[in-house]
Amino acid sequence: MTSQFHAASGPPAQGPGAVDLSGRTALVTGGGSGIGRATAEALAAAGALVHVADRDADAAKAVAAATGGVAHVVDLADAEAVGALPGAVDILVNNAGLQHVAPIEDFPADRFELIQKVMLTAPFLLMRHCLPHMYAGGWGRLVNVSSMHGLRASAFKSAYVAAKHGLEGLSKVAALEGAPHGVTSNCVNPGYVRTPLVEGQIAAQAAAHGIPSDEVVADVLLDRSAIKRLIEPEEVAAVCVWLCGPHTSYITGASLPVDGGWGAR
Ligand code: NAD
Fold first, then answer.
1. Which of 52, 167, 174, 235 is the most buried (most CB within 10 A)?
2. Do the domain assignments include residue 264?
3. CA nearest to 145, candidates 257, 21, 2
4. Domain of 32: which CATH number?
């Protein structure tokens, strides 16, 4: 199946630091859009066969077709459906996510619970599902797409911040348990990335504040960032793939900021 990808996209990159994932299989949740899409593409470019899991059927199929991978249409809030995803994978990228912005006293309880299911329970269920294969092979990579909101809080994002802080803890426990089996577990912690999830927030904030979109980006989103531009999804994907490469097997239980200096303040 890997050769199917090679036929579509050419051989993996060569050279120092190049990541060759030929013969490896990956599962990327939320692989139909944004960071997940870019990560699916980057893993496939490194030679992996990629399972693209997303609730958006058209998006999952488009990314799978473009990468020579396999699409899985799934609602990650549904534990039974999560259990039907492939477990025999070497790389698990827990990426799918959603946002809801409201003060705690107005935050809908069902929305809070949905965000925990998709962004914390599903990663746990998928680790449980995929780790036996990784342990059997003596090699595995758990890449958890967290956020700077896994390390810091913002007002009105209680469900998202709680889920990401939970994912940080889950990732560290997986690092301790996986170490004797050649399995690493890490979080990647982006600031604001140019994806549909953030573009929606920019439009909403521009309308709410009555200011242009570029002012929302510069004055609201990037207020704490030293580098005054959004991150591109490919930049986050490159870190995810690097964690699967030959020089990062000693990095585990870590949280890697991709934040333009936000955390330096
Ligand atoms: P996105 O909206 O572009 O993509 C998210 C994908 O997840 C979509 O394809 C969506 O269909 C899928 N998804 C959502 N709920 C699902 C469900 N119940 N079942 C299956 N699929 C589901 O978002 P993105 O910006 O690429 O975000 C990806 C991850 O990166 C998220 O975990 C997010 O929290 C994190 N993140 C994003 C940013 C940012 O600025 N965009 C910053 C830090 C962290």
1. 52
2. no
3. 257
4. 3.40.50.720
Interval 55-111: pLDDT, tens = 999 999 999 999 999 999 999 999 999 999 999 999 999 999 999 999 999 999 999
Give the β-pairing of 91-94 and 25-29. Answer: parallel
Active-site residue (options: 135, 160, 192, 250): 160
- With vertex at residue 165, the alpha carbon angle to CA 163 and CA 168, rounded to the nearest 5 degrees, is 110
| pLDDT, tens only, 227-238 | 999 999 999 999
Contact predicate 253/176, CB 8 Å: yes
Q: Is the residue at 153 inside a domain?
A: yes
- Examine residue 11 and state whether it is found in any structural domain, yes or no: no
> How many structural domains comprise the chain?
1
Range of the domain at 139: 19-255
Is the C-beta atom of 145 inside 6 A of ligand 1? yes
Helices (H), the chain: 2-9, 34-45, 57-67, 79-83, 109-116, 122-137, 158-178, 196-209, 213-215, 233-242
- Position 49 in a domain: yes
Distance CA 259, CA 109 (A): 30
Q: What is the best residue among 54, 111, 234, 256 to mutate for testing ligand 1's pocket, by most ligand atoms within 8 Å of CB? A: 54
Is residue 36 within 8 Å of residue 77, measured between CB atoms? no
81 pocket-lining for ligand 1 (C-beta < 6 Å): no
